[in-house]
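== Folding the chain ==

***
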Amino acid sequence: QNMSSSSVPTIPSNSLKPSLSHKLAHSLIREYLATHAQRHVLALFDKENPIVQGESITKRSEIYQILQLSTKVHQDADGNTIRESILEKLVLERLKRLKRKKRRDDKNDRTEGEAEDAKKHKKKHKKKSSRRKDKVDETVEENKETAVEPSREERRKKVSSLSGRSSNRRTTDAQDLERAPTTRTPLSSNTTDWTGSLQKDYNKNGSQQTSMYVDDSPNSAGLPVPSVASSSQRGFTPSGAPTRQSSSRQFASSDDSWGMKKSRQSTHDDEEDLLLEDVDDGGLMMEDVDSTRRNVVSKRPSTLKPKQIGSTVGQKIRHLIIGETKMFDRSWLEQGFAFATRPDTLYGIVQNEGGSCGVIAAVQAHVLKELLSAKGSLQSLSERDYREALIDALTSILYNIDNSKMVVCVGKRSTDHANPDLCFGNFTYYECSSREQTRDCISRNIASYSNGRGLGVLQIMASAILTRGLENIQKDMDMSCNTMIVEYGYCSQELVNLLLVGRATSNVFDGMKMIGTRGDKTYLKGIQTKSEIGFLTLMESYKYLEVGSNYKEAKNNVWVIFSESHYSILFGKENNRDAKRLTLYYWDGLANQEEEIALTITRTGVDQTKDLNADSFVPPLNRCIWTLWPDATIDWSCDPLY
């Protein structure tokens, strides 16, 4: 009790390391949360159980290797990979094994019971036969004692009286067979329910037992002749009574044979269901949550047939996007639409690197438009709500471009290691004729869009280009030689306009403007109708261009912000644009926001830009807001972003 500190035994440091089972359990939990995109739960789990470099299992390939699991892909009828977590697969396998074991145990118990009953019957039948023989012998001895030999007729009557029960039963059975219908009926689902009743008939009637089937070819007496039929020919009469007699051994053998075939078929099906899907072994589960988002597939079979874009059209798409000589960098090749994992900003799409922010902001704006139309706060929505909003957003983009013919593209990375640049010719596409068909097609392929390190950005770009048409896009532009990606890998205004308003115009003012003289006129195309999504830019504050009311005063309180070569989002959760006081929220997918940024807008009626000039030190976002509300004072919930 008075042990000194020096006498306390020390614990070796290596004993504090987690065991393999401990690490494996953590990895299965992480993989499950990642597969089902439980981002906030995964963040909390990692906070409580941090990943230790070199100790934690962070790759699916390690889990497959340790558990010796198959990585064969499990697909639906349309060829889409149906992703399920490894933990779910293991639980399903365990449940199916228990079910098969119970089925085998029940079958063995039934077989042992029938064998025991048959043994008891044989013993009982042997005793009855012995008693009948003894009675006959006693009668003969009595006749010998009286010295009067009975006639043959008398002896036959005597024996018949002793065994009348059996002969009467045979007569009754023959009459039943003559009356029974000879048409076979399919084996009903209550086959096993007859086992007990048939066994009772057997025990009651000696060796006479009713079979499950009859042959419909009559013999000379006009009665159906028993035949050996396959399991597919067995059946019951409509009345439910069995239609032929046989031994219980024959019945048990027939039933077991059918049961074994069914069991073998079920086992084969179970093995097919238990195949684990193939997952990219190179990716870390915790780095890319949405790369393993479950592919939610409609139960209805798809009537759309995938087609390959081909090298000719693929090359034209590539030239329109980036030109003939430039190459895609990683920021475009590894960017999809994955949502944030922090609880306050679950609605935000995360941008991995600079470059594709224009496409991400356009899709984010459509996602917010869909989410804000639902009831409840953005933070209270479920993971499925965010996924469905993404599906609706992508559908709306294509529907706004052409509501009669929409094209949905699904990407495939180039397998040419010498030239790793993307080849659009490897993409497959689906032609849809209605909004519902388009949404269903996107829903079936949503995993390829929501993969944070996938080809989602390039897929929606290719889909929008093919939906609008290559020639029409070139006609939309002021100069047909323009590209969708411009210098430094930034998005062009044509690309942003195509995704927001459905036309690849080069300007943001209302309608069209003519420049030049009468003999040399040029028409510049802008925004023709009021947009669903708004657009504000810092360049208007510096008087470099004009944003028209069709774009600035959009139908929804969602705006794409273009400021200092970067696109971000400003939105309001309530449709109260004309109120004197309102709250707007800011999201920047590249800024790694940890919390929601709110801006309180108060309309004062006094122009706040009267003394504003190019050198004024104010937040760029304030300048953008003042292009819409010049009289607004702006209060930030955090330090202003400059």
